[in-house]
Fold:
Amino acid sequence: MAETKELLRAALQGIEPLGDGLDAVERRVASRRRRVRLEAAALALALTAGMAVVLLSVVHGVGGGAPVEGGPHVVGPTLEVEIPSGSMEPTLTVGDVVLVDEGAYGTGIPERGDVIAFRLASDGPDWFFFKRVAGLPGDVVEERHGVIFVNGTEFPMPVAETPDRQTLGPWTVEPGHLFVVGDNLENSNDSRYPAIGQVPVKAVVGKVVEILEPGSRQGEVLPAPPAGVAPGPATPSPSVSLAPSPASTADESPAP
Structure:
């Protein structure tokens, strides 16, 4: 670099005296390079921050009101999770990607008929379960020949391909807990069995509000209408021993 500077000085001496001119040019060039580098770094930082915000809103959406085109009301934030088992068929099937609204309940609790996602402490923070809420605190829930009753009234549920035939319960829902069942009663590990039991309200991740994929199944997830279910407690049928949990049912879904 020093030799190049001397050659430039020698070549230009024949035209006019240089004095500090070459040094001044070098300083201006160096200053411009620093300025360009700073501007490029600032632009890269802005683009990175903008992409991070976009990605965050896609992966863990901020929600905030009803989506366009008549979709479900979403409070947010949200999660997208794939359904791993058939315990919620026909409402949710294996491979469905669903939208879970984490802010749906705020400081409240789910309603009867809501489809919820929840975690159990025994399975760690990386696994989700998906069930329908049948009983709220104080309710009495039982199954009679494959039909769920809440406080003595039949609880409406979607019709599963294979009906359940069991008679189980009754169970009184504990304070701060929910009684949840899979729509596919015959093949669902849920609150009827000790492996799941009654679900603490604090374990609820959010409300399942929409099926996103596949496109052929895209649409809002609606609760089964709990019409006619009176508040508990009520006089239940005679108690029946709990059946063992279905060994073949896998209801967990790994967290994204």
About this structure: Helices lie at 2-13, 21-59. The domain at 78-254 is CATH 2.10.109.10 (Umud Fragment, subunit A). Residues 14-22, 43-68, 230-250 have pLDDT under 50 and may be disordered.
